[in-house]
Amino acid sequence: MTISNKHNIVIIGASGHAKVIIDIIEKLNQYTIVGLIDSFKPIGTKIFNYKVIGRKEHIPELKKTHNFNKGIIAIGDNWARKKNHEKITTIDPGFEFISAIHPNAVIGKNVNIGKGTVILAGVIINSDAIVGEFCIINTKASLGHDSEIKKYSSLGPNATVGGHVSIKTCTYIAMSATIIQSIKIGKHSIVGSGALIVRDVPDFSMVYGVPGKFIRKVAKAEKYFYHKNNTNP
C-alpha cells in the first residue's frame, strides 16, 4: 500500500479564482485538496471534482472530519481576501495558509514571497523584489527588480511594474497597466486598465489614462471588478 506524504488542504472560496488556484495546486502535486470552503454557495456545489464541504465557521469541525490544517484563500477582491484571512484567524488561530506559485512563473534571485500569495502562469518577478502576504500576481504580470507590493494587493493580468516601485496594501493594479520605475502607489488605490503611471499615486486614489490622471478618491473596501455595463468612475 502506498502512503501519500502530501498534506491535505482546503480552498477557501468557490469562484473563478478558485479554478486557477486548483489548477496550480494540481500541477505542483504537493497537496491533496479535500474540499472547498464557501459561505455563500450550498454545500455540495462542485468546482471540477471538488465539493463545497462547509463555511468558514465550520473549519474547526471540518479539520477533524477531513484531516486538514492548511489552506489557501481563493478570493480575487483584495478587501474581501483580507477580511476572510482575519475571520479565519479568529475562528482558528492555528490554521496555516499556504502560497501557490505556478510552475511556469519565473521567480528571480532573492525574491521574497509572503504566505497566502498566489502567482499565476507567465508571471515574471525579478531579483530582490518583495511580494507581501495574501497578494495576487495575475497571468503574465511582471514585477521589476527591487520593487515591493504590500499585503492584500494585486496585479491584474499583463500589468507591468518597473524596478524600485512601491505598491502599498490593498491596492489593485488593473489589467495591462504600466508603472514606470521608482513610482510609489498608495494604499487602497486603484490603477485602471491600460493606465500609464509616471508619477506617484496617493492613498485612496483612482487613476486612469495615458498618462495616468487622478479620477476620484476611493473608499476603503470599495469594489473594483466592474461589469461591462458599469464602468463609469
UniProtKB/TrEMBL annotation:
The keyword Ligase does not apply. Keywords: Acyltransferase, Repeat, Transferase. InterPro entries: AcTrfase_PglD-like (IPR020019), Hexapep (IPR001451), Hexapep_transf_CS (IPR018357), PglD_N (IPR041561), Trans_hexapeptide_repeat (IPR050179), Trimer_LpxA-like_sf (IPR011004). Pfam families: Hexapep, PglD_N. NCBIfam families: NeuD_NnaD. Belongs to the transferase hexapeptide repeat family. This is Acetyltransferase.
